[in-house]
Write a structure and sequence with these properties.
mainly alpha, Four Helix Bundle (Hemerythrin (Met), subunit A), 6 helices
């Protein structure tokens, strides 16, 4: 699939919005968007990779919590054989929970972009 026919995910849009907010100096809103981009990537990968036990848990509970997301990240890492997925997810959690400087946020955002890129590659490769 060529670059021009690449599927744009919600995470891609959120990253663009976060970058724009960060460029305007809105660290709080940018942080929330970067985290949401990572969260949406995890949810998408659970669906695309058909990780049934996570989908069943979310359906039963009626919501996603941080514990379920962490468990999903572990399963995704195993399934796609990329241990760095967990590291990228930890960057997203740091963005959400820590009071980061602009420089720290920019560094952690790079890791979130890598997570989104992995999700994009899987979505666009038809790996599912």
């Amino acid at each position: 699939m060529g670059e021009s026919s690449k599927i744009l995910t919600a995470s891609d849009v959120l990253i663009e919005e976060a970058d724009d907010l960060l460029s305007k100096g809105d660290i709080t809103q940018a942080s929330e968007k970067y985290y949401k981009a990572a969260e949406e990537s995890i949810k998408l990968l659970v669906k695309i990779l058909d990780i049934k036990e996570i989908m069943e848990k979310v359906e039963k509970d009626g919501y996603w919590d941080l514990g379920t997301l962490d468990e999903a990240v572990q399963k995704i890492s195993e399934k796609v054989k990329k241990s760095e997925v967990f590291e990228y997810w930890m960057s997203a959690v740091a963005i959400l929970t820590a009071n980061l400087s602009v420089d720290e946020l920019e560094n952690e955002a790079k890791e979130v972009r890598k997570l989104v890129r992995i999700a994009d590659e899987i979505v666009n490769s038809g790996m599912a």
